[in-house]
Amino acid sequence: MKTKKVKEKPPLYITLADRTDPDLGFFYKITAPEQNFINALERFGGGLPVPVCEYRFSYPRRHRADFAFPHAWLIVECDGGVHKQGGGKHGQDDDRRKLNLAAVLGWRVLRFSADMLADDPAGCIEVVRLALSVVKLNELIVPIRQS
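^ thats the sequence. predicted structure below, dont judge the formating
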């Protein structure tokens, strides 16, 4: 009797290795909060789908989400630099514009700070699990005509 070989789920960090992005032309390096999210997902995220990393959610703009679950219209942003004056990148208006655009396009956005991911990684993953369990009925949204 032959035994079935069970395929192991590939680790998330393979998709997030330091790399050059030919589309944007820059070298992408994973941040500590993003790595904490990956670690939490691998530890507490059993049964959850693997997110797409550095997901480009708006065209022709080049906005990218840290992580996305496109089938559920869900974006996860891991905020870093909270101890920098002005809150780092995530305290600037460009980041707010990006997330506002995501909302206008119908995306749901979850934001986790570095402290949240370090202090309660299981709780962060539970929020993701809950968000993924909610069905998004995007096709039922009808644009309002402007007169």
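The chain has four helices and six strands.
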